[in-house]
Each structure stands twice: as C-alpha cells, then as structure tokens.
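User: Hi! Is it possible to get a structure for several chains at once, not just one? Here's what I have:
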Amino acid sequence: MLPPDKGQAQKFRALRARLESLAPQQAAPVLRELAQRVRRDDLQMIHRARLGHIGGDFSVIDILVTLYAAVLDVDPLQPLAAHRDRLVLSKGHTAGALYATLARCGFFAHHELETFASPLSALNGHPNRTKVPGVETSTGPLGHGFPVAVGIALSARLQGSPRRTFVVLGDGELQEGSNWEAAMTAAHHDLASLFAVVDRNQLQQGARTEETKQLEPLADKWASFGWEVRDVDGHDHAQLLDTFRRPGSGRPVCVIAHTVKGKGVSFMEDQAEWHHKVPSAEQVEVALQELSA
Amino acid sequence: MSSQVAQAARLHDCRKAFADTLTGLARRDERIVAVCNDSVGSSNLGGFQAEFPGRLVNVGIAEQDLVGVGAGLANGGMIPFVSAAAPFLTGRALEQIKADVAYSQARVILCGQSPGVAYGELGPTHHSIEDLSWLRAVADLPVVVPADPVQTAQAVRWAAAHPGPSYLRIPRIPVPDVTPPGSPFQPGRALRLTDGDDVTVIATGTMVSRALDAAAALAGQGIQARVINAAFVEPLDADAVLGAAAQTRGIVVAEEATTTGGLGAAVATLTARERPTRVHLIGVPRAFAPTGSTAFLLEHFGLTAEHIAAAARDIMAHGRD
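Assistant: Yes, the chains can be modeled jointly so their relative placement is included. Here is the combined structure:
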C-alpha cells in the first residue's frame, strides 16, 4: 500500500475545511482550478505511459474532484478509518482520473503518478484496492462497483453509522445487468445514504450509447426502480456540490451528471476515438494551454 | 453389507453443522452476517434468520449482486457468509469472486451449497463439478472442502477468523463422521486418516468416507493404503503429497468434481514437478452428466469405494518397485 504524502494531506485537510464553510457558488472556482490541475496531471500521465482512457477521465474529473475536495469525509492520513465516507469508482478504466485526484489530496505522493502503468507500479491500468489507498474495491470489469457500494451502504445501516456511500458509474456501463440487480436491492432497503452518480457523457468505447444500446429514458428507469433522480450539469461544480450536499427524501439518490467526454480539450470533446487514444507531444502542448486558460 | 443400515442412520447432511456453527458464531460476534440469493431454505439458514432477522440479507435471485454486496459488507467491517447453491454462486458470479473478493482481498466467506452432483436429476445446469477447477485458478483464495460435520464446523470457524476471503464447499450428499476427535484444521495441512506404505488415497469432501471404505477392502487383500483427507484443496499440503509420492507406490485422488483442474490436477501437477509418481484421478470426466439420481451418478462416474480400490490395485500392479 502506498504511503500518504503528509504535507499534501495537511494542505488537503485545510482546503476541505475551507470549502465546507463556503456556499456552492463560492466553492466552485476553487474546485474548477483543482479539476484543471488534475486534468493536466492526468494528461501528462497518459502521455508518459502511452496508455489510458483520457476521454472518460476528463468527463468524470469534475465529479471526483467535487466529491473528494468538498463532500466526502475522508482523511488521506487514515485512509481505512471505519467511519469514512466511501467512494467506489465503478468505471475503473478511468483510473487515471482517480489517481491524479487522490495524489492531489495527499493519499500518496504526486511523483507516484510518473510510474502509472509501468512495470511493478502500484498504479495499474485499473485501480487495485490492495495497493492504492483510497481505492475501496478493485474495479475494471464493468458492472462491479455498484453492488459493492450497496453492500457498503448496508453495512453502515447495520452499524447505525451515518457515513455515506457514493458510486460513480459510466453510462455505457449501465448496459451491464448487475447494475439493475443492485438498483433493486438498494431501493428495497431504502438505502438513503447511497448516491449513484452516472457520468452521462453519451459515448461508450466505439460509439454513442444510444446507437449501441439505448439507455433513454434513463431518469425514468431509475425512478421506476424506486430512486430519487437528480439531473445536473456534471461540469458545473456549484450544481454538483449543491446536489451532493442536499439531503435526500429517504430513498437512494441517482445523480445523472450530464457530461462531455474529453471535457476541457477542444479536439477531444465528444469524440468517440478519444476513449483511449494517446495524445502526441504536439497535442499535449495544445491541451495543456487549453487546460491552463 | 450388513452394516449398511446401521451406517445409514449415522449419515449427516453437512448443512446442519454449517448453519448451527454460523448461528453460534453470530451470537458472539455482531459482525457476522449471512447473505443469500433467495437461498435461505437451501442453505438451511431459517434458524439464523429467525434469531438474527436484521443480519440476514436476502438480495433475491441475483448472484452478481449477491457477491458484490458481500464484498461491500466486508469493506464496511462486517464478516459476510455469502451462501448460495454452488453452481450459481461460482458460475454466475465468477468474475465478482475474482475481482471484488479475491483481487480486492475482501473478507468474504463464499459458501457453496449442494456442490458436486448433489442435485442429481435436476441435471448438469444444477451440478457444481467445475467449481474446484475454476476457483483453484483464482489467486489468493483458499478452497476448502470439509468431509463431515466436524470438519464443516471447523471450516466455518476457521473462515470466520481468517482475515481474507475463502470458499467453503459444503457437502449435501449424506456423509458419515470421518474426522477423529481433536484433529487439527489448518490451511495447507491435510489429515492422515490411515497409515499405510503401499499406496495412497488422497480424497476430499464426500469422497473421504469412500476412500476409507476402499482402504478397509484393500486391507483385506493385504494392501495397506494411506488415506489422506485434503480438506484444503488450496493451499494444498505439499509435504503430505510428496511424502506419499516418496513412500508409497502411487496416489489415487478422489473428488466429487471434474478432474480437469481440482484436487487431482493439483496433486498431479505437484508430483510431476517435484517427484514424479503414478497418479490415478477419480472424479467426474469432462462430460455433462446423463439424467439420474445422485446415487446413480456417483456409480455412473465411478465415484465409489470399489472404483477407488480398483485404482489402488492397478497402481500396485503397475507402480514402480
């Protein structure tokens, strides 16, 4: 298990405390700046490793950054504290987004990102729970994270713990039937402490979700399974923060976060080919400029 | 045999020992929960549910969810016993077992009920003969096959205390008591039930009593068979296997599972590498079973004391001097 970066973790604690006291509109610029840093880190990681899933990374980064920096009760210095909130990244192929976020929070040293996907690195192409602090379950094959998150939320219920559980799902991933098994279980048990966040970027590996296997009407599907559904702009940090802070109605909450695959880099946005394409040196330069604006 | 009627009275369905032991543990440890897929009855967990209604999670007929939920409960600090019919638990949810449980090292106890050909006439969809091959191939997952109620209780207690995941294959075909009182139960340690230096029979689960019957028959023919109960198919007791290879003429392996990758394959692989010897595998061939009762299928596939004894005699006839 990688050790924490103590200095960075202290800074993260301070940031977390500051953001907690701010209204969503005030917190948003700070979260946006942090998310752009995470995108730049991820871009360079992927370029160095010649491997990664940059499109889905960039669609989910605003969600992950908002959750880690301003919502989750987690402490990088005690990553296994029993009372911690849990985040399960079910779309495990966007490990790069998670690693870059966790490093910014101090869960491990930033320089570890340079080892991404290299031989014997803790940072595999998909997150490994036994090696990377902050990773709650090893994911990669799709449709796995949601049932695990349901089990975590059930454990909190059994223990009378107020901790919350968030599972971040890809939209294409919802074609896996195991998700709907989990959705039924969560609703049956009224797991109000569980949030399922759908990264609705409309694209899967080869094409649009609606061309591949239609998900719409997606909100109606969740509602019919007994979930409270909230639609948000998945790149609007104020909206994300507001929706994650707002208490639920006693049912589990599905946040459909409308996003753009490749968000933040003009030539990657909404292009299926950038699912796992690796940028050239010239493209990295252009992307870094756009992400620094 | 005149003793058959008397013996039948002393046969046990190991699910009772499983449920009684689990319920006893749950009384002392609040972290113990049972997770089922509409399998409360077939796992014999009605008593557990009556005593701890809040600690039995029934996810309905949904095995992927079943194993994932188990992994999540473990993440949250509970000790989940995930119990379902072995074919569906290990077949339908194999990827969850690999990724969510073994690779994530979630402390989940997977309990495969009614394994092997216990479901008889229900047919190959309901037989669980592949589970030992599948799960032996998964890293960092002990595979435990108790032989009688004593070992079933030991396996449940061991798994509850073990800090990582495990797979328990709970026999349903009635078995007699085969474990001497006070026998140890440790990973990587098999139990020698009879001494003998002519030939060895390594058996697991429901085949252990048949191996003992075979040894008794062989003794009458002047052949001293060493019977070893390998409850831990993984990790295997390499010392016991290599000792048998060195000290006896050869090894018969008997399991109520396919011979493609289970206990027999483990023994054959180990001996081929470390100490080549004659190894005869008794189990289900790589074939779907025809229609028939459990008793018919055991006979059909040669999972009998007679067949084990014949294999041992064959080794005595052809094994090295």
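The radius of gyration of chain B is 19 Å. Chain B has a mean pLDDT of 95.

User: Great, thank you!
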